[in-house]
Amino acid sequence: MAQDVEPNLVGGTPATGETGWAASMHIKGRGFLCTGILLFRDTVVIPSHCAFKKIGGMEPWDAKQVTVHVGSKDRTAGEVLKVAQVIPHESFTWGEGGKEFYDAAALKLTKSANQQPLTLGGESAQPGDKVTMYGWGSDLPSGDTSNLPRKLQQLKTTIVDPAECADANIGVYEVCTDNPHGTDGPGGGDSGGPVVKVVDGVPTLVGIISRARDGARPGEDETVATDAPAFREWFYGKARGVTAAPPA
Q: Where is the Peptidase S1 domain (predicted)?
């Protein structure tokens, strides 16, 4: 794989407002792995790269090993839910397929959560859009993940021209987010964090944190996020338990 797919949220502040839809993904015997989003009451969405046991591998986690926490800004608290199925996108390639990553996956839960899901954006975000990222990843510029924050962090940023993410091999169905001050941005543990745009007063999901340039430390470069609205049919299909075609 050409890209570093473990982003950390550096330069953020403790999250405010309603964030019951923020999900933390945990692996039995390992602990916290990735941030996620409750998109339907029985479905959490994550990047495909968080759905596999090894970087570069194609063996998904055993659902019995996975739990998610929702409903709390503390990743060790909240409602704990078991996972029935881990569903990486069928076209995900670890970047080996050129500019088609399909870095999206679904975790089907064994029962519905008691939290309100995050609304999926109706249209893709555009350069200039103001957005907020959320995640439980490292808050250290070094990217050290040995002592991750327990409290959810947020970072206000902007969607920028895809050309700014060229070094991260940005491709189709992806958007590029700015690195404020040239120092702030996501890196390990923030993978899967929501990129949220407020539309008519309603927080909507427009991106899922994916990766930065290979070798970049948190905040050094812009960040690639999966274009969540482009995967609407796929997400809805997995929530309903039916096969859906990739974005057109």
A: 9-240
CA dihedral of residues 10, 16, 22, 25 (deg, nearest 10): 50
Instruction: Please tell me the predicted confidence (pLDDT) of residue 213.
Output: 76
**Cβ-contact 136, 145 below 8 angstroms:** no
Residue 1 pLDDT greater than 50, yes or no: no
**DSSP state string for 12-26:** -EE--S--TTEEEEE
pTM: 0.90
Q: What would the mean pLDDT of 178-187 be, rounded to a whole number?
A: 72
pLDDT at 67: 98
Residue 93 in contact with residue 205, Cβ under 8 Å?
Answer: no
Determine if residue 220 is left, alpha or beta; phi over 0 gives left, psi from -120 to 50 gives alpha, anything else beta.
alpha
